[in-house]
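Next up, sample data.

:::
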Amino acid sequence: MPQSRSGVRAQHFRRRLATLVVALTLASAGLAGHAAPAQAGVWQFADGFEVNPAAAWSFDGAGTHYGGFGHDFGSPRSGQQLAWANVWSQGGFSSVGRQVRLPRTPSATFGCTARVYLLSASDSLINIEVIDPTTFTYVAFRQVRADINWRAFSVPTWRHGPATVLIRVSVLRGPQVDWDDRMMVDDLAVSCVY
């Protein structure tokens, strides 16, 4: 018995649908076999000057400048120690810095940022610098004005640069002539997302 026109269309539709389902199943199976699982992670580094800071941190500057560790010049934000630096010379600076080895080289999909807590009784201008230690060029930079309260400051996220960076915090000498510019630094944190 011959099939009706609608029966032929229905049979043709079922064959096309079956072919489409098989093709989609094979395509998804093939993709699943080659797709890598999505991965995201966070790497963090912290240094609050608590364990032998002189072994990792160093002081530098231009003009008459000083720096040290301890709590002689104020209370740490956390723990028992902080770093302090001051500068007396007009146009000079005083800095404290350390190298940090990142888990891998930053790239378009792997970015890092650094945060530090600052306090300054002299309303000083302070640079937070992330530096490539081989070329001594900035990877990230932020200039801030700190006050008498501990406050967190972060540099912008950097996505390209070396696997080892120098994190340096520098207090700059302002125009006043009757006192020094000084800062206190505590609780460095570097975090990378990949």
